Amino acid sequence: MSDKHDAIDDLLLERRKFPPTESFKKDAHVVGTHLYDEANTDYEAFWARQAAELVEWTEPWHTVCEWELPFAKWFIGGKLNVSWNCLDRHVLAGRGDKVALHFEGEPGDTRTVTYAALLDEVQRFANVLKGLGVGRGDRVNIYLPMIPEAAVAMLACARIGAAHSVVFGGFSSQALADRINDAEAKVLVTADGGWRRGEVFPLKPQADEALRDTPSITAVVVVRRGGIEVPMTRGRDHWWHDLMAGADPVCPAEPMDAEQLLFLLYTSGTTGKPKGIMHTTGGYLTHVTYTHKYVFDIHPETDVYWCTADVGWVTGHSYIVYGPLSNGATQVMYEGVPNHPGNDRMWQIVEKYGVTIFYTAPTAIRTYMKWGIEEPAKHDLSSLRLLGSVGEPINPEAWMWYHEHIGGGRCPIVDTWWQTETGGIMISPLPGATTTKPGSATFPLPGVGAEVLDDEGRIVTKGGGYLTLTHPWPGMLRGIWGDPQRYTDTYWSRFAGRYFAGDGAKLDDEGYLWLLGRVDDVMNVSGHRISTTEVESALVSHPSVAEAAVVGANDATTGQAIIAYVTLVGGASADEQDLRNHVAREIGAIAKPKTIYFTPDLPKTRSGKIMRRLLRDVAEGRNLGDTTTLADASVVNELQKRAAEAPTED
Ligand code: WT7
Questions:
Q1: Per-residue burial over 599-632, b = 16 or more CB atoms within 10 Å of its CB, e = otherwise
Q2: For residue 315, how far is its CA from the centre of ligand 1 (angstroms)?
Q3: pLDDT of residue 67
Q4: What stretches in the chain show pLDDT beneath 50?
Q5: What is the pLDDT of residue 649?
Q6: In angstroms, how far is CA 274 from the centroid of its own chain?
Q7: Model confidence pLDDT, tens digit, residues 109-156
Q8: Which of 254, 269, 298 lies at the terminal end of a domain, its last residue?
Q9: In 129, 148, 584, 603, which residue has its Cα 20 to 30 A from 100's Cα atom?
């Protein structure tokens, strides 16, 4: 164990290694270090080459990057249209009949959308938006289920230079109203409802609730998806299909300035009002096209790609809509939950479409672990050749399970670290070039600079600390909508000249990066700074444990004590003392949880991140703070009850 003055202690040791296989390397885009070497020589020139090769411009840029800390501009003077890059260029190249989206509705209905059909719909909807008074520089709010119309609406905005602001369909009417008002959006695109767990969840009624107090909205477009009866306000509300039927099918893509606002996406953060993260056109498209191509080793002619995120999150923006379509890929888009009608729905879809690349979140993987290996075993998953993970640190055991039971032991796994703010993937293996270690996101991608710092801002070469980004990158956020000061304070003030991501990370003796979770979650036990991630990973490495959440609760003797909440694998049982000893064996006695609660579920945000702040409230017997981002409130109520009943042990 390292010295106790480390910013974050380094406890977990993982020695397993997975070099790229010969068969994967045979057709991989990158097998050696040449991209790294090139980018290390001159990262701006490297990104400029990617921009020129992967994206089509109607006018070239004159300046690659202008960096006035903390404000960056990329490809200044360049002009391009994102929807043209995602659609027209593929159709013009004769690939109009290629499938862009295999849409799978939750009830089992399907739609096959080719590039030509998608272009047609996007042009029509762009004209619909124009007809509703939307023009360059305006904002459009999108509040839709996971249906092709979500991509159509986003691309139509991009075509005419309006910025979209997508709000996840699971958010409340209040959250929607706040986001509409902050962005001062002109038009809202929504649906009657969408399918979820065998039922239609209403969206339009929620939207109506929000629209009571959103003076900037002048028109609402409603997609019919759920088939439920919804009120329509005359003069303001229009059916999507009515407007589309009358729309002009031709809408030329207008060249946009490289720094034209492409979208706003709100992140809640831990406190305060949601931040409207700003992403622009040329740099963002370059970043997502490049990362989607090389991290997922996309071969558009043969691959069937599936990212299970929702378009309401940045993953859906960058790796369902913009990256894959810019690369001309064929992908699956699934509307519903993973356990309808059965716990094998995802694997049934993989088999049905012959999915080759599957990108999901650790929280989902741990849920599949809980459901048992018999679910994936019901299906032929032999089409898969690459797996991805995003959203949280992936515990080594979850990585191994994914590798073995989904990837059949043959698929490389790319653990991709990035954020809403970074726009695209920053730290990840390149699957044909990087030897992976279960639980490590490995190295910064070519073109990305990342370093770990200690409390005083000194560079850490081995051990734990704070993850920082050392220079600008094309997909970086351009600011927070309406609040430049908050942008500077939040991301650029902790360490001079660097972007601080808010995450802890450690470097091992071979220079591999291991993400350790949010630094706000780091626990201080008798002066040792212990990351929740490492204790959780130690718990998950016990064969009976599917998922664990760990928090530090105030303790008179040790400052903080480790409290663990554990979910067991279906059918398994476990003894608290046994689990505590297991943690001690895996990473050391200092990390032994003081108390372990067994629970069938953990409190999570709607995007699947564990809400440790709430668990801290529970552990310290406090009233719960803000619970509006919680996906299922009953989970914490149950935990609170148990905490009140349980004797505290030692
Ligand atoms: C935060 C960003 C990135 C798109 C989805 C989430 C955590 C994300 C990883 C990973 C460890 C990860 C970080 C980051 N995170 N990917 N591969 N390993 N942690 O976007 O909601 O903006 O969240 O998610 O804590 O800061 P987001």
A1: bebbbbebbbbbbbbbbbbbbeeeebeeeebbee
A2: 10
A3: 97
A4: 1-4, 648-650
A5: 36
A6: 17
A7: 999 999 999 999 999 999 999 999 999 999 999 999 999 999 999 999
A8: 254
A9: 129
- Asked if 597 and 557 touch (Cβ cutoff 8 Å), the reply is no
pLDDT score of 5: 62
**Residues having CB within 6 Å of any atom of ligand 1:** 267, 313-315, 389-393, 415-420, 441, 501-503, 515, 518, 607
Q: In this structure, are strands 523-525 and 528-530 parallel, antiparallel, or unpaired?
A: antiparallel
Report how far residue 627's alpha carbon sits from residue 614's, in angstroms, rounded to the nearest whole number.
8
The CATH code of the domain that includes 234 is: 3.40.50.980
The CATH number given to whatever domain includes residue 535 is 3.30.300.30
- How many domains would you assign to the chain? 2
- CA-501 nearest atom, ligand 1: 26
Termini Cα distance of the chain: 23
* Pocket mutation for ligand 1, best pick of 8, 314, 419, 422 (most atoms within 8 Å of C-beta): 419
Tokens 């780091």 sit on residue = 522
Of 229, 254, 279, the residue at which a domain comes to its end is 254
- CA 419 – ligand 1 centroid, Å: 5
pLDDT value, residue 232: 98
Locus of tokens 């299922």: 632
The parent domain of residue 176 ranges over: 111-254
Give domain status of residue 424, yes or no: no
* Runs of H (alpha helix) within 19-85: 22-27, 34-41, 43-54, 82-83
Q: Which tens digits make up the pLDDT trace of 486-507? A: 999 999 999 999 999 899 999 9
